[in-house]
Amino acid sequence: MFLYQNDESLNIEDFIEDYLITLEIRNYSDNTIQTYQTILNGFNTFIKTHGRIKSEKDLLRAFKKYILHLKNKNVSKNYLHLVIRIIRSFFKSSKFDIYNEIQVPRKSRPLPKFLNEQEVYNLIHAMDDEYDPNNLNYINKIRLRNKLILTLLYSTGLRISELIKININDINFENHTIRTCGKGDKERIVLFNDETYNLLKEYLDKIKDNNTYYIFTNKQNKTLSTRTIQIMVKKYAEKAGINKKVTPHVLRHSFATHLMEKGVNLRVIQQLLGHTNLNTTQIYVGVDTNLIKEAYNNAWN
User: Fold this and answer.
1) Could you give the residue numbers annotated as active site?
2) pTM above 0.85?
3) Out of 10-14, 110-114, 233-237, which region has the weakest mean confidence (pLDDT)?
4) 177 phi and psi, to 5 degrees?
5) Do strands 187-191 and 177-181 pair parallel, antiparallel, or not at all (unpaired)?
6) What residues does each domain of the chain span?
7) What are the catalytic residues (predicted)?
């Protein structure tokens, strides 16, 4: 089917703008929209260098060439999967019938990377020897804030995007709970333990500016960026002597894996993580080899 008659070419930028607006209306997160925008802009840039697009057939041919171009650049299978899924969704939303001709390949699902409990402890306490609770200079305030961030990421299983949005009203100290809004604006309640409670109280009593809405802010009283926290986690991992790639999401994986190892019901872990589908949570069963061995031995005994 031809998109335009005469000699007019398709202006895909207009379709991309409309699609991104649709994602905003659907309450997609800022990070997700940014990812979609980056990938679609990359596709659009490629199209501009490969002739005019006057029909859906031209567009489909350009898409196939783009995927081949990415394969030749040796991008990861997971990235290629993401590109195909996003462009197919874009075509479907834009009423291009060619989306039916695009098959999204199955995504490989490697086992989650996680830290053992000793490594988590070393990470959280990496700067304890340099922290002076009686001297509230700027450096010590940052050290206390960072320790609380690491503790919350591990003890609650929060995503980094959820953590930076915590505000005072979200916290119920009596019940040791935090109300958070996850993917797709889905609300859930996460729990925190006594150690996190004490650290949170210390932070709020000593550092938190009551005039700010969010718990974690920078000098300009704006929420911390995810990048700031990612850099901090990497720095603390190096200080703790952990020879693994450590990210905020690794702490979330560690939280789920350790709960699984302690025999917590899979449905409970699903709720704590905010997974819509239980299949997403079941990947942690494959991480806990002790649980697998126990089930295997029980079957034969």
Assistant:
1) 159, 183, 249, 252, 275, 284
2) no
3) 110-114
4) -135, 155
5) antiparallel
6) 12-101, 117-300
7) 159, 183, 249, 252, 275, 284
